[in-house]
Amino acid sequence: MQRSWQAVVIVLVSILALPSSSFSSSELPLTADGTVLELDESNFDLAISSFDYILVDFYAPWCGHCKRLSPELDAAAPQLAKLKEPIVLAKLNADKFTRLAKKYDVDAYPTIKIFMHGVPVDYYGPRKAELLVRYLKKFVAPDVSILESDSSINEFVEASGPYFPIYLGFGLDESIISKFAIKYKKKAWFSVAKGFSEDIMVSYDFDKVPSLVSIHPNYNNERSIFYGPFEDKFLEEFIKQSLFPLVLPINYDTLKLLKDDERKIALTIVKDEDDDQTKNLINLLKAAASANRDLVFAYVGAKQWGEFADSFGDKKTTLPKMIIWDGEEEYLMVIGSESIIGNDHASEISKFVEGYREGRTEERRVAGPSFIGFINSMIGTWSVYIIVFIVAIVMLFQYLTKDDNEYHRVDTPAQDQVDQISGSSTSQVERTEYRAGDKED
């Protein structure tokens, strides 16, 4: 009996002596203490439910981009934790916790998502600490900021940064735009100016009130002015159409943004986005875009993204050319306006739009995947290459060792994956190649 009690005492003492890490992390309280939380299967759901705003970095230990991002998150975390509504930064080893990675559609490293009241949204913002803090403050800012003077207007525009369009209401009541400010909070800044001078009217290019001015800081402060009517239908239409600049450059990030827009895309394909001829053409396209807001006007350079440009017709077609794309598998060529040729590009653009409006079109299919599928297709292609490579390594390994009892290790990324599949207990070496579909900075 005495030995039994001694055993019980020993067990209790042993339990008490265990470090706190021995208990499930899901039992530990989570706080916004200015550090980057390390999440796993046991505490992920708890973290998402504990904080109204939490940004999660889905990373892989071997990913170079992830290693560069890590110290930036460490630097930003204390600043974001001090906000009136704290934003918590966290990270999850998605290469290890694959169930969570699959649940949140993580197909590249790093993938960053911000969870707002439990709802995940893809993060496409900057990754440097200072800029990341400025970008994330958007999500905890007031739905509509009230501006009382010229200086507060200018300060608001400056503090908003370059990553979101800005809507400034002049002579408007806050209630008129508040519900749209809530609806589009993830995509734009909203404010109402209660006090302003004529200097502000000159600076922001409006000549009467009430008016709503949209500004795109990232596109040379491009402005659009709306004078009404301020009924919900027309107001929301202006807000939605002004989320993009008049002429949108097509790249990896902007293509993803377009998936939420239902308008057809008037796409201009040029040789080189950076040459002077293209810059002049873009100015002409802006005039056409202003008069045709039911279309998204966009452009892409064959030099900058040749594979995307080539998916719309024959490479031999003279550039620049315009097409109408539905964002999926179909696009329209306007008969008689296959290319923008001649010296009068403005007339050629007008002729193209007129031909589209009148139905003088020929339907064609995109020579490749549609929309976001176009981007993700690279992931699928490289996945096939990697699988074939791994299979070849396995077969070679089996051939070389079938008559030899000695185990030969090959330190390559592919072999690491083979070892994981076969249950090898050897130590993990750092991989120097990225997984197919890795995002670029």
From TrEMBL:
InterPro entries: Thioredoxin-like_sf (IPR036249), Thioredoxin_CS (IPR017937), Thioredoxin_domain (IPR013766)
Leader sequence residues: 1-22
Spans traversing the lipid bilayer: 382-400
Positions with biased composition (Polar residues): 414-429
Residues of the Thioredoxin domain: 17-141
Chain spans, region Disordered: 411-441
Entry annotated with the keyword Signal: yes
Gene3D superfamilies documented for this protein: Glutaredoxin (3.40.30.10)
UniProt GO cellular component terms: endoplasmic reticulum
GO MF term set: protein disulfide isomerase activity
Keyword hit for Oxidoreductase: no
GO BP term (any one): response to endoplasmic reticulum stress
This protein's UniProt keywords: Disulfide bond, Membrane, Redox-active center, Signal, Transmembrane, Transmembrane helix
Basic and acidic residues bias: start-end ranges: 430-441
CDD domains according to UniProt: PDI_a_family
The family this protein is said to belong to: Belongs to the protein disulfide isomerase family.
Protein name stated in the entry: Protein disulfide-isomerase 5-2-like
Annotated source species: Cucurbita maxima
